[in-house]
Specification:
Layout (H helix, E strand, L loop, with lengths): L8 H32 L2 E4 L2 H9 L8 E4 L8
Parallel strand pairs: 1-2
Amino acid sequence: MEGGGRPSALQAALLAAGTGLTALFYSVYRQQARLTRGLQGARRLRLDGELRAVLLEAPGRCVPYAVIEEKCSWAEI
């Protein structure tokens, strides 16, 4: 602060930039949290006949949100 108790222009600019960045990061956080909440209720499928049956039953053969679960094993080369 300058002698009169008022913040300088640089301090005001830094405060505004910090506030803007905080708002931007909070917006991204809220968007990711909303997406995560939507995926928590997603249907869980396995890569076998179950996935095929669900896709054949679904309108347009499309499942909007699904979690595909399968074990992966590393093959030796």
